[in-house]
Amino acid sequence: MLVFVTGASGWIGSAVVPELLAAGHHVLGLVRSDEAAAAVSAAGAEPLRGSLDDLASLRAGAERADAVVHLANKHDWSNVAESNRAERAAVETLLDVLAGSDRAFALASGTAFAPGRLVTEDDANPAAGPDAPRGGTEALALEAVDRGVRSISLRFAPTVHGAGGEHGFIPQVVEAARRNGAAGYVGDGANRWSAVHRADAAQLVARAISTAPAGSRLHVVGEEGLATRDVAAAIGEALGVPTVSVDPADAPAHFGWIAGFWGLDIPASNALTRERFDWTPTHPTLLEDIASGAYTE
């Protein structure tokens, strides 16, 4: 297949592209810069210049493709409304091209939220509509199954970790530890986060694009629920600073914008995904990556 990948040079995309190529697919990767184009070419894929705001480039890529993997997102936490708007417009554009073709559309999403328990792949995500997180695009994509699109929701753990350049949530927690001279968790730190190594995630994405039925919801989750106090302790050990509890009222000052997420209890099961797709994560855990210096060197 020719697979069109948005975010092809990004943290997850740069791991997914080699997996797709190793599976025998050809890859067309959306890129925004000469540097990204060079990286995608070096990986063995064909670059396509464009962006989420350049809807014509999205149409062009989707029209050529046998399948689409949509990983790109602005992730602008200073202007969440704009990120959501751009995401919804991009997904609407891609779905319009794919409608009636039964071609695969794999969408990067997040795990749903079920306070007090592990959320499963069978739990519906309540986020729907243009004002919802990510522009409600998971619901939008799954609704497109009725329009003849083989939509697949890739629900990524909030932490997709590994060595070499993650710019997500954990680096923000590490930076707060550097800034404050202490690695913090919120309250008692019993709240849990799921995590997945980017290499394990990439393997699952490549498998899903070929085998996942229309309407599938996959949990791209390696570890179902790590207590944030344990993650903070690993960061403190790696940096050589103490680990401390931060009162919820003081969390914004200590952590910055990440505070609202770092205090959430958001574990997610991977049991159904492992069973349905014969997938077993084998790469280092988050705590092992932190201990190895992946986030502190």
TrEMBL record:
Q: Fetch the SUPFAM superfamilies from UniProt.
A: NAD(P)-binding Rossmann-fold domains (SSF51735)
Tell me one Pfam family matched here. Answer: Epimerase
| Top-level taxonomic group | Bacteria
Which intervals hold domain NAD-dependent epimerase/dehydratase? Answer: 3-212
Q: Which GO terms describe its cellular component?
A: cytoplasm
Q: Which residues cross the membrane?
A: none
Q: Which GO terms describe its molecular function?
A: aldehyde dehydrogenase (NAD+) activity
Q: Which InterPro entries match?
A: Epimerase_deHydtase, NAD(P)-bd_dom_sf, NAD(P)-dependent_oxidoreduct
Q: Which PANTHER family match?
A: NAD(P)-BINDING DOMAIN-CONTAINING PROTEIN-RELATED, PROTEIN YEEZ
Report what the protein is called.
Answer: Nucleoside-diphosphate-sugar epimerase
Organism, per UniProt? Nocardioides exalbidus
